[in-house]
Amino acid sequence: MSESEAAQEVNAGPVYRLLKRLIDVRPAEMQALGWSWLYIFSVLSSYYILRPIRDDMGVAGGVENLQWLFTGTLVGMIVVNPPFAALVAKLPRVRFIATTYRFFMLNLLIFILLLHMATAEQHIWVGRLFFIWASVFNLFVVSVFWALMVDVFDSEQGKRLFGFIAAGATLGGIAGSSITASLAKDVPATYLLLGSAVLLEAAVFSVRRLSQLSDVLHRRPAAESGELLIGGNVLSGLTHAFRSPYLINVSVYILLFAITSTFLYFQQAEIARQSFAERGARTAFFARVDLWVNMLTLGAQLFLTGRVLRAIGVGLTLAMLPALSILGFGTLAMTPTIAVLVVYQVLRRAGNFAFARPTRELLFTVVPREDKYKAKSFIDTVIYRTGDQVGAWSYAALGFLGLAMIGISIVAVPISIAWLLNSLWLGRKQEGMAAAERRVAPLASV
């Protein structure tokens, strides 16, 4: 810590001193941290209001049709990536993020109108379309958030702060889940969608403040402002993702995570359909599961994530979720009960949000700025949904072959082992690239 930072700590207020007990934060980072919290809180509250509605609409359209909805989601991801890359190339950071979020706000208003006008039969098809749209929305708006985070904070700051920032996402998830769980039986879905749209505008406001603070945080001169055009071409996200061995392995990590997550998602959907006949009760069940996950996640993010990352490093932290998956699928293969499935699903999702997600975002702090927005968006959306596709159709194929929970769990174990090895490789590579950046930085400032 420099002398100026030490002096700032002496003059810092009670909020800083309280926060310092939880995480290793610097006084100069407090404002950026606060706006990051409001930003991701707004985005995740918006999504978690929608998520149970999306899941219920997916089940109402038939669990046997979910594979097709996942295919539609992949097509949607492919469609929206080139326009986003064009915005990144031609607009400053604040404007392309605001444009992206307001596009989704407009979509929500359109869905409100469609749901209000649809007949009972049409409602099923509007619901299927909404399922696809919400799945695109989820990955895209969260990916844009983390792209800004890895542009604002460097690798060293990310190790200290990303877990705590992710706690803002968890609080947003708890708030959104609680709103839907308490209102879904009595309030029409259209009103909940309107509240989701309002929260996105709060996210846009946060982006403007955070972008201004990022240049101050890193003492950037005007010639190096974060609002300078990134440039590049529309397809550079795709080409860069497949040209770099490092980004290829990041893609493999996302792919294997998505495949195994999809196996569990389909099993949960089937259980919900069998257990709840009434749609409002089913929506409330999905919301309660989300609430349990988010509450468990929050405790880990506040007290463990940053400490674990600094203690064992990027590779071992990344490997925690694959290791849990090996154990979880192995247990399901031996004890294929609903209770084990639900407990494993909750622990896995909490482990993802608390440890795997903040750590995998660190992987992008060491790539060029263009890749932080374009290649990252492509990997987080298209590659992720490709993993969904592989998982969804593999699940269907395994079911066609007569494999139930035991057989699918056995298949998932070697997939998880490959994922574990990939995690360890990525961790070593990221640490090496971050160390190289730290060595170059003092020379660049001379």
Task: Write up what this structure looks like.
With 446 residues, this protein is an all-alpha fold. It has a single domain, classed as MFS general substrate transporter like domains (Growth Hormone, Chain: A, Up-down Bundle). Helix content is 85%, strand content 0%. It is built from 15 helices and no strands. Helix 3 runs antiparallel to helix 8, helix 5 runs antiparallel to helix 6 and helix 10 runs antiparallel to helix 13. It is globular. The mean pLDDT is 86.
The beta-strand count equals 0
CATH superfamily: MFS general substrate transporter like domains
Helix content: over 70%
Radius of gyration: 21 Å
Strand residue percentage:
under 5%
- Give start-end ranges of low-pLDDT stretches: none
Count of individual helical segments: 15
